[in-house]
Specification:
The complex is a heterodimer.
Chain A: E1 3-5, E2 8-10, E3 14-16, E4 28-32, H1 33-45, E5 50-54, E6 72-77, H2 84-95, E7 101-106, H3 113-119, E8 123-125, H4 129-133, H5 135-139, H6 156-169
Parallel strand pairs in A: 3-4, 4-5, 5-6, 6-7, 7-8
Antiparallel strand pairs in A: 1-2, 1-8
Chain B: H1 6-27, H2 33-41, E1 45-47, E2 52-56, E3 62-64, H3 65-78, E4 82-85, E5 91-96, H4 101-109, E6 127-128, H5 142-153, E7 168-171, E8 185-191, E9 197-203, E10 215-222, H6 226-240, H7 251-258, H8 260-274, H9 283-291, H10 306-311, H11 315-324, E11 325-327, E12 333-338, E13 349-351, H12 352-365, E14 369-372, E15 378-384, H13 388-397, E16 412-413, H14 428-437, H15 441-447, E17 452-455, E18 469-476, E19 479-486, E20 498-499, E21 504-505, H16 509-523, H17 531-538, H18 541-548
Parallel strand pairs in B: 6-7, 7-8, 16-17, 17-18
Antiparallel strand pairs in B: 1-2, 2-5, 3-14, 4-5, 4-13, 8-9, 9-10, 11-12, 12-15, 14-15, 18-19, 19-20, 19-21
The chains are: A alpha/beta, B alpha+beta.
Chain lengths: 171, 551
């Protein structure tokens, strides 16, 4: 499954561990939430980056104390019609000011890219190669946004205010 | 009318091009039907029994004449020459070809019409009072707020994949024509003691398999906070609404399971985090939206023009005027409801020719504006009273002057088994038969105001729970069986109807309804006591006895 980051397909340095996979000595690992919470100190002490896979039915409150320590948070879309992780993403970015890498996993298709970018995701495990290749093109599909989110894109309402004021300058 | 600016137009065009790409990928096989299904539903495209059905948004039921012409054009060019107006102020086309859909959308986009979020598990088209801005006694024009919410809910990055569909309705009148109590969120515009505009917010109303009347979650939310408050409700719902069972996924179930107190505490907590954010709407933003609504330049006209006085001698005109013409907030003007319920025809249908002709009449008599009501009728919102006789003649020629608005033949019905893949039973033929039974205008008038609502399955698109008489078609041992309720209503006194007894067969429905009506005529205290009030006074029993005594 191709990983897109910064608009490009990149190599995924993270190895996904199951709950009971033996811990590799070094290298970057992505760990399920329950294992991460249980073994956080040991995991964070080893050589290599640690990321956590956080399911969409678990409150992110328990993750908050670790936000400064993890290298990536992977949120899950079990099917693309299950949108819980959009709320989790926005809470991580906008309420808890998480600045690290936020990865979308699961059934990730090109038709969600814009929503995901707006919600604060910056890495995408894309299901189809063609979708991954079309990332940049798809991400630019929209230039107008009605809602404010943490991504800082200017909303339609505020753009109108700017237009109003700039028109007002000369009059 | 709200006039789109370049920003709104750009977004609609971007959506059309995205959808064109999605259709292309489906046709090439790049998208599976399972994947495409969710994408097409986000844009109003259902796969029905015979063909794709295409639902187009008419936000808060307001249309300009040129937009109605564009709908006529779509009906003619891409469909079979007619469209069907729905209980959520939208229009549906039943015979669309998938490959042509992007072109139809592009044609509609040229006049600022789209199909975004007319289906799917997202925030649906915002609905409002079809008399918004013209009804006497409104707090203020609810369309300003409807438009603000329309924009905010369009392609929302967090709430486009909710547990289930989500519907918002707004009213600004004491008499609720928008049925806010049967919506996921119902908003009633009010003023607080300081004279500031805000909303009473209701949550958790809805029909379907498990019907609920909405409950007040907050008595007053200031206008500037309404987007953050809605966002807080949605965020709680998106995270905690059930996704394991489609029949338990609406917010009404979450509200019911948590209880309104606990649910409102959750919302309150979330809201406190976000209310002082960029979601707060300042006055300037509201003014900007308001400034893009244009209002007619009304003339100073007499309350009772000569034309109207003279026409009063014509009994047919008077019959139509009495139930189709309503008071307007400006003297000398009236709101005219146009019945889409001709005797013997499917409720809510209009042909392309009728739509074109109506657009012309709107230009001539109603400042180019048309409204769509949830009762599946249309309205011309600004007709000078002196023009009423001429307008009536013109409507009559088009078959659009059936004098039955709010009478027993003004039936609300879903498409049912004639079109819908979810339906278990036919709705339209039941409605057609009932209009024939009560075709006599004198009889219908004698009965007075009486709303019949028909749904062809438990999903309740015909709002049968809140019909004065509700008819629900179900399937039992391979046969269509109809359950009949009485005493429901969708207005400010919203209530769910009660069953009068065991279900009856297709052929018996009209007989049973006739019996119910006869019982009412015998039981009412005086001619002014409406059916719904007699049922309220006496309960179901006397009706039940009457209907089932001989069955």
């Amino acid at each position: 499954m191709p990983l897109v980051n910064g608009g490009k397909i990149i190599d995924d340095s993270f190895v996904k561990l199951a709950v009971d996979t033996p811990l590799p000595e070094r290298g970057d690992i992505l760990v399920p939430a329950e294992r991460f919470i249980a073994e956080a100190d040991a995991l964070l002490a080893r050589d290599g980056k640690v990321g956590v896979i956080w399911p969409n039915n678990r409150d992110i409150d328990a993750l908050v104390p670790y936000l400064g320590k993890v290298a990536t948070v992977a949120l899950v879309f079990p099917t693309f019609r299950d949108g819980r992780a959009y709320s989790q993403a926005r809470l991580l970015r906008e309420r808890y000011h998480y600045r690290g890498d936020l990865r979308a996993t699961g059934q990730v298709l090109r038709d969600q890219f814009v929503f995901m970018l707006r919600a604060g995701f910056d890495s995408f495990e894309v299901k189809k190669q063609a979708d991954a290749e079309a990332f940049m093109q798809t991400a630019k599909r929209y230039s107008v946004f009605y809602q404010p989110t943490g991504d800082g894109r200017i909303t339609a309402l505020h753009r109108r205010m700017q237009l109003r004021h700039s028109e007002g300058v000369g009059t | 009318m709200y006039a789109y600016d370049e920003i709104d137009r750009t977004l609609v065009n971007e959506r059309v091009s995205e959808f064109r790409d999605q259709v292309k990928r489906r046709l090439s096989g790049e998208l599976t039907e399972d994947e495409f299904k969710i994408l097409r539903l986000q844009n109003g495209v259902y796969l029905q029994l015979h063909a794709y059905m295409f639902r187009v948004a008419i936000p808060y039921g307001t249309l300009a004449a040129n937009q109605l012409r564009a709908l006529a054009h779509v009906a003619r060019k891409y469909d079979r020459g007619y469209g069907h107006f729905t209980t959520r102020q939208n229009i549906q086309f039943n015979w669309i070809k998938l490959a042509e859909l992007p072109d139809a959308l592009e044609d509609l986009a040229k006049v600022g019409i789209h199909a975004m979020q007319t289906s799917g598990n997202n925030m649906r088209n915002v609905t409002s009072d079809q008399w918004a801005g013209v009804a006497p006694g409104e707090i203020e024009d609810p369309r300003i707020w409807s438009e603000l919410i329309r924009q905010h809910t369009t392609l929302h990055p967090e709430f486009s994949f909710l547990p289930r569909k989500f519907k918002i309705a707004i009213t600004a009148s004491d008499h609720d024509r928008a049925a806010i109590k049967i919506h996921d969120i119902g908003l009633k515009l009010i003023k607080n003691e300081k004279g500031e505009t805000g909303f009473e917010v209701l949550v958790g109303g809805g029909l379907g398999r498990t019907p609920f009347i909405g409950k007040t979650i907050k008595h007053f939310v200031h206008g500037r906070d309404i987007l953050s408050y809605i966002e807080a409700i949605l965020r709680v719902y998106n995270q905690y609404g059930r996704r394991d069972n489609i029949y338990k996924a609406r917010i009404k179930i979450l509200v019911h399971e948590l209880g309104i107190e606990k649910f409102s505490r959750e919302v309150e907590e979330e809201w406190q985090h976000i209310r002082n954010s960029s979601l707060q709407i300042d006055d300037e933003v509201i003014e900007d939206i308001r400034s893009r609504f244009t209002y007619p330049a009304y003339e100073k006209l007499p309350h009772m023009p000569d034309e109207l006085r003279q026409a009063a001698a014509d009994a047919d005109f008077e019959a139509w005027r009495k139930n189709s013409v309503a008071p307007h907030k400006v003297q000398g003007y009236a709101i005219v409801t146009i019945s889409l319920k001709p005797i013997g025809k499917p409720p809510g249908d209009a042909t392309a020719d009728q739509m074109d002709a109506l657009a012309d009449l709107a230009d001539k008599y109603s400042f180019g504006e048309i409204r769509v009501g949830h009762e599946q009728n249309l309205a011309l919102p600004h007709v000078a009273k002196r023009d009423l006789p001429a307008l009536w003649k013109a409507l009559d020629k088009l078959g659009l002057a059936t004098p039955n608005v709010n009478l027993i033949t003004d039936i609300i019905a879903c498409p049912g088994l004639d079109y819908c893949s979810l339906a278990n039973a036919r709705s339209i033929p039941i409605a057609q038969e009932l209009t024939r039974r009560f075709a006599d205008h004198e009889l219908a008038n004698l009965i007075g105001r009486l709303h019949i609502n028909i749904s062809g399955c438990i999903n309740a698109c015909g709002h049968h729970h809140v019909g004065h008489i509700g008819i629900l078609g179900v399937e039992k041992n391979g046969e269509e069986v109809y359950q009949i309720t009485i005493g429901g209503r969708a207005d400010e006194g919203a209530a769910l109807g009660n069953l009068i007894g065991p279900g009856v067969k297709f052929d018996e429905v009209a007989d049973v309804i006739e019996d119910v009506v006869e019982a009412y005529l015998a039981l009412r205290e005086r001619p002014e006591e409406l059916f719904i009030d007699t049922v309220k006074r006496l309960g179901v029993e006397p009706f039940k006895e009457r209907v089932y005594a001989t069955r």
